[in-house]
Amino acid sequence: MTREAGPHGGRVSDSQALLLAAGLADLAVSTVGSALGTVRGLLRRSDATELAGEAERELVARGRLALDRYTAVPPAHLEILAQRALARRAAGGV
User: pLDDT of 57-81, one tens digit each?
Assistant: First the structure.
């Protein structure tokens, strides 16, 4: 294994890298276990169909917001300034 720079500029030893990987794996396993328990509980509900529909609508809305956030091109700064100057001239300002 190679040594890599740690978060504080120091080197991470092989044993530290192994411990970090084991810690991440343990976190992933516990998170998946918790999520599976939650899913089992949700499947036992009588309103599971309605809950799934609501979850789908929520995910679609979140996806739409995420796409809008990352794909929308902000207006050009100079274009906005030019429009404001034209609006002031039309209103009789300087």
Answer: 999 899 888 887 778 777 788 988 9
Fill in the DSSP letter of residue 74. P
Q: What's the pTM value of the predicted model, to 2 decimals?
A: 0.36
- Calculate Rg over the CA atoms of the chain: 26
- Rounded to whole angstroms, the Cα distance separating 60 from 3 reads 43
Distances (CA, A) of 20 to 26, 44, 70, 73, 78: 10, 37, 32, 39, 48
User: Which residues pair with residue 5 across a beta bridge?
Assistant: 11
Residue 13: which residues within 8 A CB-CB, separation 6 or more?
3
Contact indicator for 11, 2 with CB cutoff of 8 Å: no
Q: Are 6 and 14 in contact (CB under 8 A)?
A: no
Backbone angles phi, psi at 61, to 5 degrees: -65, -45
Residue 44, phi then psi, degrees to nearest 5? -80, -10
